[in-house]
Amino acid sequence: MTPRPASCAPWVGSTEPSAEAPSHPEVTARVIVDPASLFDNRRSIMEALADDLPGIRFQVLDGNLPEARELLDRTGIAWLPAYVLDANAEDEASFRNGAGALARRHAAGLILDGRERVGANRLSDRPRIEGRIDLFVARSSEAGRRALRLALENAQRQAEWSPELIVHDVVWRDGSSSRYGLTAPGGADGIDEALRAATVRQAAPEKLPLYLKERLRAEAETALRLAGLDPAWTDALATRPVDGVLKGLYDDADLLARLGSPPADVVLLAENCELIPLHSPADIARTFERIGPRKR
């Protein structure tokens, strides 16, 4: 029997029909960012979304532009980076069973935002003040004292390149009968310390760093004298605080409540808007080095 020519073969290869490649929904994800951020984790979040959504396309929006501001206002997004995905992302099972479980539904799409959901760290409604560090410390704790000492040392070492350092005591509002409706990690003593420091900040702000430095190793009266302040005068003001002092402490308490409740012993807010994760003392030094040259 003459062999059949290859050109006449009805098919070549497997005798089974090939399966079609699975289709994936085409999804647009708007990623709202602050280009000036010192720290953000959006790259790792975008990589995770791409794993769950093979058909995803990212559109990065500058959070300072009108289009992004309108979207932030409409959706109530309070933290950046934030991610707004097309609603059809839920058609992809891997997303639906993964990151999609954390998304909140809105007319604008599926929203992944917030510190707890995606580790966002920039408050979207606060203006950036370049070259400024707000350091909140619980001076009754070892961690708070260590962070304060490091910050003061870095500020002194960097001299003219140092960021503007503003030190606050950790306080929070207390609805009970506590003094002035505030409480602190050190209890009543912690409130006394906060009132004294806030009084110095208002009356003689240039002397506050030296007072805080001396207070780390001496009693309050001695620290005040070494900073060139009259202890009797300062304590008299702190005992009957003026409205500006109390308002400053209430503002601190309200901001700390937004940043995390209960507040940690050490909280670093960079440039008035960016919560910096602190995993070790070296993070404080690195933040100083990065922010200092941006001071205007």
What structural class do you assign from the helix and strand content?
alpha+beta
Strand count, sense and closure of the main sheet?
Answer: 5 strands, mixed
Helix content percent band: 25-40%
- What's the domain count? 2
> How many DSSP helices?
11
Keywords:
11 helices; 4-stranded mixed β-sheet; Glutaredoxin; single chain; elongated; 296 residues; 5-stranded mixed β-sheet; disordered N terminus; alpha+beta; 39% helix
In short:
With 296 residues, the protein is of the alpha+beta class. The chain has helices spanning 42-52, 66-75, 93-96, 115-118, 142-158, 187-203, 208-215, 220-226, 231-239, 243-259, 281-291; strands spanning 27-33, 56-62, 79-80, 82-85, 104-106, 109-112, 122-123, 132-137, 164-169, 172-173, 182-183, 266-270, 274-275.
Please characterize this protein's 3D structure.
By secondary structure, this protein is an alpha+beta fold. The protein has two domains: 27-123, Glutaredoxin (3-Layer(aba) Sandwich); 132-294, Glutaredoxin (3-Layer(aba) Sandwich). Helix content is 39%, strand content 18%. It has helices spanning 42-52, 66-75, 93-96, 115-118, 142-158, 187-203, 208-215, 220-226, 231-239, 243-259, 281-291; strands at residues 27-33, 56-62, 79-80, 82-85, 104-106, 109-112, 122-123, 132-137, 164-169, 172-173, 182-183, 266-270, 274-275. The strands form four sheets. The chain has a five-stranded mixed beta sheet, sandwiched between helices. The chain has a four-stranded mixed beta sheet with strand order 9-8-12-13, sandwiched between helices. Helix 6 crosses helix 9 (231-239) and helix 7 crosses helix 8 (220-226). The longest helix is centred in the middle third of the chain and has 17 residues, at 142-158. The protein is elongated. It starts with 26 loop residues before the first strand and ends in a 5-residue tail after the last helix. Mean pLDDT is 90; it is low at 1-18.
